[in-house]
């Protein structure tokens, strides 16, 4: 700001402080003071800029800007126009809140502004003695038809682009001189960017979006911004790949291994557990003892029925010797009942050992810590599955069950063997679903092409069932699209 003070030695200190309070760039502030030769002229610039900044809306700021200039500089009329798509549109007239763009006056002013836009320089009519030769045909028309003897049009330039045009009209007794032209150019240099910023901020969102799009499109076709061009090309290539490339569509689901034949070892009668040498995870042979029940009560019961049998036999022989036919029949029935009870006790005694029905692995059951515990008749103690025959149980979400059919192939990766993938084929789709975690799952069964040697029942993993080839973009987005369709259907009346 030292340069500003040196260039403004002849100005009033309070005006200079007003310029400093505007927070303008140093170069622009110095140019403003240089072109405004006196304190009064600088005061005009500060007042116009202050009034322009006070208004929040663009239309109000433009009208206040034109009216203030007309009042401060004694102009008959001041018009402000904005440049849009290479044409000028009159935005504000001094002392006029509303006006029509179709009137002859506004059209004549628009012609003078576009003449200034085409030449990108200040045009004074009549020309100043020191000005080079310029085209002033539209200015002559405005002067002749509407009585403006002195006309001055100034382009408002921001970053090398003309964003607006300012046209001022005076009578013949007050022509524009060089100092006034310099003053108005300073006003335009300071107020023009402010008005342009307000115009951009006051537009509709669609207009802002369109301008931003045009700006970025300009970056794409221009000579610079190589990184942006490469990024857009990569994005277009990715979109094209997703739209036209196809991939294998597969349904993923949690999977559990079960034995193809799974049998239960149950308690044959009510009793107490004597031994349980095996537990879940043990490999057993056919006929191997899994558990035994206590025999003491069964032996006592067998002795009891044996003694009753001997007693009834003695009574039977005595009745036969006495030739008592009715008593013989009664004793015969009692003897048959006793023999039946004895046979039942003997059979139970022979079944106190619970044996494996076939060779395999114990899937469930661990009674090693519950010896002596009572067990009910028919209670499942162990479940055994073979080691050479398995089936896969794939829990498929109901959203993915439709494309799955019997005969489709897939691959399974187990949690315990993540480095191997096993092939299988869908063998059965059950029509019953189970609910879990707020979602429904269907049971889909599959069979291995070749039974792997290292797998065991109850292993878990993730299976992927191959459906067909579809577009990659559909594979990645179909679940979200289906969810959106369902929600839309639920929300619509």
Largest sheet: 6 strands, antiparallel, barrel
Strand order of the largest sheet: 6-15-18-17-16-19
Helix content bin:
40-55%
- Number of folding domains? 4
The coarse silhouette is rod-shaped
What is the annotated CATH architecture of the largest domain? 2-Layer Sandwich
Average pLDDT works out at 82
**Individual helix count:** 13
For the record, what is the CATH homologous superfamily label of the largest domain? GAF domain
- Structural class comes to alpha+beta
Account of the 3D structure:
By secondary structure, the protein is an alpha+beta fold. The chain folds into four domains: 201 residues, 2-Layer Sandwich (Beta-Lactamase); 34 residues, no CATH class; 122 residues, Beta Barrel (OB fold (Dihydrolipoamide Acetyltransferase, E2P)); 103 residues, Efflux pump adaptor protein, beta barrel domain (Elongation Factor Tu (Ef-tu), domain 3), CATH 2.40.30. It is built from 13 helices and 19 strands. The strands form four sheets. The chain has a six-stranded antiparallel barrel. A hairpin with a 2-residue loop joins strand 17 and strand 18. Helix 2 packs parallel to helix 4 and helix 11 runs antiparallel to helix 12. The longest helix is centred in the middle third of the chain and has 26 residues.
Describe this structure in a few short sentences:
The chain has 493 residues and is α+β, with helices and mostly antiparallel strands.
Keywords:
493 residues; rod-shaped; 27% strand; 44% helix; OB fold (Dihydrolipoamide Acetyltransferase, E2P); single chain; Beta-Lactamase; five-stranded antiparallel sheet; disordered N terminus
